[in-house]
Amino acid sequence: MTSYKETLEWLYQQLPMFSRTGAAAYKPGLQTSEQLDAHFGHPHTKFRSIHVAGTNGKGSTSHLLAAMLQSAGYRTGLYTSPHLVDFRERMRIDGEMIPEKDVIDFVERFRKCGYEGHPSFFELTMMMAFDWFAKKRVDFAVIEVGMGGRLDSTNIITPELSVITNISKDHTQFLGSTLAEIAAEKAGIIKPGVPAVVGEASEEVREVFEMKASEAGTTILFAEDIRPLQSCKPDPRGGLACKSPVAGGDFYCGLGGDYQKKNINTVLTALVEMRRIGIEISDEAAADGMARVCETTGLAGRWMKIGDSPLSICDTGHNEAGITYTMQQLECTASALGGKKHIVIGFVADKAIDDIIRLLPHDAEYYITQAAIPRALAAEALAEKLREAGLIGNVYPNPAAAYEAARENAAGNDVVYVGGSTFIVADVLAALNTTPL
């Protein structure tokens, strides 16, 4: 029997994986997913689902929704990407990762099933999740879109609710160069008769969503219109103290970071719609899910504390909007502590990083590195771009070395921030042996 390690090596070597190799692995369209789905007996039809798209926040939103469903007593699947440390993070049931044996068994079944197509890594991984969810008889599965929406392989599902968090410029080489074009791709998850919730939408983007909902003959609710989140502020426990009548008044959210306010507002709006269509989640279950989201779903890498004295934070925000929010949060944190900022940073090579670099603070010391993936932007190339922008720092061979140097150089009241790319965060967490539970 093939080992788990050998199975993963086959997945990585035989199937193109966008998160590691980039554009060469991007495969838009639903044909392969539909063929695989038929081959495995249409597993996605055997459970109810919620579909989540968006440029930023879709991971946090997906985990919050899954946590609330779990707290309400539903057996809940969760499919997200990419993983940080362990491949099995991509699929969970009630917070538990898929067992290694189930990964091995599915891949062996696929290799013996006679399917003659060539799925991408994402297509086959998605089908593995759907097959496992069906086999384990989940009540609901929260499904995060990989990229875009209209042509994303997850779009074979017909969910109970479609959620789109926001629109920002990311993956423009695939999704379009304007916000309206990107919105049109993400609006592709809106389906006839399936209500939709949108977190944030500028006027031009709002029109795209309204038109798509009208064409589909379905309802659409904008979180910015109803604003169920009445107040939200930092809590000493590390998360956010919130107030909303939708969740019974005062409640605690276990996710830190000021940017989570928008995600919480989106999730509460989705909760309103879920209740309207008959998905029963009490105020108590909603509040409990919000409070224990990290423990119950294994969410990691969102304004996550990884060290004390100096305070060390990692965050997977990696595009203009995400970096804007995290840099604002970093400035607030450093000011409150009265210390300096130390930033461990790296990017993938296919990002339009010039616009991101303009968002980085000049009063920080930079520890420049690259992740251990083919897509990584060479640290020396990034260092040159940072120097041109007037940002000062040294190059380190890997994220773990960069993080160690930042910790050594920082004073006790300074802040160390790790980010720029999901894969920089992943490499540091792996070096710290901090695997999401």
Could you describe the 3D structure shown?
Helices cover 41% and strands 16% of the residues. The chain contains 18 helices and 17 strands. The model is unreliable at 18-26 (pLDDT under 50). The protein is globular, with a radius of gyration of 21 Å. A hairpin with a 4-residue loop joins strand 10 and strand 11. Strands 4-3-2-5-1-6-7-8 form an eight-stranded mixed beta sheet, with helices on both faces. Strands 12-13-17-14-15-16 form a six-stranded mixed beta sheet, sandwiched between helices. With 437 residues, it is an alpha/beta fold. It folds into two domains: 4-297, Mur-like, catalytic domain (UDP-N-acetylmuramoyl-L-alanine:D-glutamate ligase), CATH 3.40.1190.10; 304-431, Protein-Tyrosine Phosphatase, Chain A, CATH 3.90.190. The protein has helices at 4-14, 18-21, 31-39, 58-71, 100-112, 121-135, 172-175, 179-186, 203-216, 223-226, 260-276, 283-291, 293-297, 320-337, 353-357, 379-388, 399-409, 422-431, and strands at 48-53, 76-79, 91-93, 96-97, 140-144, 161-164, 196-198, 220-222, 231-234, 240-244, 249-253, 304-307, 311-314, 341-345, 364-368, 393-395, 415-419. Helix 4 packs across helix 11, helix 4 (58-71) crosses helix 12 and helix 8 runs parallel beside helix 9.
